[in-house]
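Troubleshooting: if your tokenizer reports a length mismatch, compare your output against this known-good record of 152 residues.
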Amino acid sequence: MKRMHLHIRVTDLPQSIRFYSTLFGIGPSVEKADYAKWMLEDPRVNFAISARGQAPGLDHVGIQVETANELEVIQARLQAADMAVLSQTDTTCCYAKSDKHWVQDPSGLAWESYLTLESAPTFNDAGKTTASAPCCTPMAQPVSIQIKKKDV
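Known-good structure output:
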């Protein structure tokens, strides 16, 4: 079963943790000096926030899968639609090692589909845990995406 993923940049992490813990009725399942994550079951969402020195707001959205097969199905669907896909294997992002595929929607919003392999001691592959290190979203220019229509 898949889980929706939302990652929001915040300006005040402790205040935001209090707010979202109250909103969700539960504290984060992961809490670091610059990051917090809730693995909610109702609604089924992986909700993360980080204070990483960038403007507050929506950082990226995604679909977290539970199996490698689910990830392959999403990747095949994106590639069949001729979308520009950036694939990463065994990469560290948000204190987790994952295999993932990134695309951008027509407005430039980053979407990731990913399979979490294990937890990690650092925020990203470079091990940069300072507040000025950006989130793991690939820094790419918006791409033009055209979805091919299948013949009926």
